[in-house]
Amino acid sequence: MAATDTRGHLLAFLTIAIWGTTFVSTKVLLTEFQPVEILFYRFLIGFLALLALRPRHLKLASWREEALCAAAGLTGVTLYFLLENIALVYTTASNVGVIVSVAPFFTAIVAFFAARDEKLRPSFFVGFVVAMAGIVLISAQGFDSVFGGGSIVGDVLAVGAAAVWAVYSVITRKIGSFGYDNIQMTKRTFLWGLLFMVPALFATGFEFGIERFADPLMVANMAFLGFGASALCFVTWNLAVKILGAVKTSAYIYLVPVITVAASVAVLGEPMTAAIACGVVLTCAGLLISEWGKGERKAAADKE
């Protein structure tokens, strides 16, 4: 393996290692912050970090491009992370981490109907059924407490977050075709996301509550989400894609549920039952089945 490829694999693994533990970090912050407060502070830090990297204002070619950036901010920042953070109030970090990993399924469906550029192969449907069986196993414990606001509420919200992320993914694919600097466009998306958060901030009685940052644990976790997961990971992920290509890099996404579950058990002491373990295995297997042979077909198509 060339030294450049090794660097690409390390960058991809670093990104996934951080993304896989964000659910745990958010769970810790929920002891002092409301879901929307975590969301606001996280992306404010991320926006300021990207602003430092790209201080120049970028003028877009048309209002349609601006509208797509706004849509990306609404779906990929405000709605997705708000649903994810609220889900973490009701269910475990393990559950949320595994469930939102099925976002590629929803992305394929949205891309098929919106752009007609994604073929839904038989393996996709087989993988979808297997992964959904895994989610049912993971969520089974919540069905007994539906009327008491149990974990099923959080699991449903996590599925909603995965669906919203699918819409965001299709939007960003279109934005990427404009040819602008990636960091500039991410900074713009973050800004739109922050603007869309304002109504939710007022509705929930948001207070800056600076005194909460006197706790080093809160500061460390907020900085981790802002600088690490929201700003740094964007750069490292795109560098990995540039070195390895999209197919090889995307394979690392399948490690997210494993890392999330391991971190949740180790840091938060969340339970690991046989049903949850089987659910994690089925969900990961479903994701792999749905992607089976995609890389080979893409390579063959590129040669034609």
Structural features, described:
Belongs to the EamA transporter family. It is a multi-pass membrane protein. Keywords: Cell membrane, Membrane, Transmembrane, Transmembrane helix. The chain crosses the membrane at residues 36-55, 67-90, 96-115, 122-140, 146-168, 189-206, 218-239, 251-268, 274-293. Residues 7-139, 154-289 form the EamA domain. Helix 2 runs antiparallel to helix 8 and helix 4 runs antiparallel to helix 11. Mean pLDDT is 83; it is low at 142-150 and 295-304. The chain is built from 13 helices and no strands. The radius of gyration is 19 Å and the shape is globular. The protein is 77% helix and 0% strand. It is an all-alpha fold and 304 residues long. The protein has helices at residues 3-29, 35-53, 63-90, 93-99, 103-114, 122-139, 151-176, 182-203, 216-244, 246-250, 256-268, 274-290, 294-303. It has one domain.
Q: Total strand count, please?
A: 0
> How far do the termini sit from each other?
27 Å
Succession of helices and strands: HHHHHHHHHHHHH
Oligomer: single chain
Number of structural units classed as domains: 1
Low-confidence stretches: 142-150, 295-304
Cα-based radius of gyration, to the nearest Å: 19 Å
C-alpha geometry: globular
Mean of pLDDT? 83
The major pleated sheet works out as: none
Structural class by helix and strand composition: mainly alpha
Summed up, what is this model?
Helices cover about 75% and strands about 0% of the residues. The protein has helices at about 5-30, 35-55, 65-90, 95-100, 105-115, 120-140, 150-175, 180-205, 215-245, 245-250, 255-270, 275-290, 295-304.
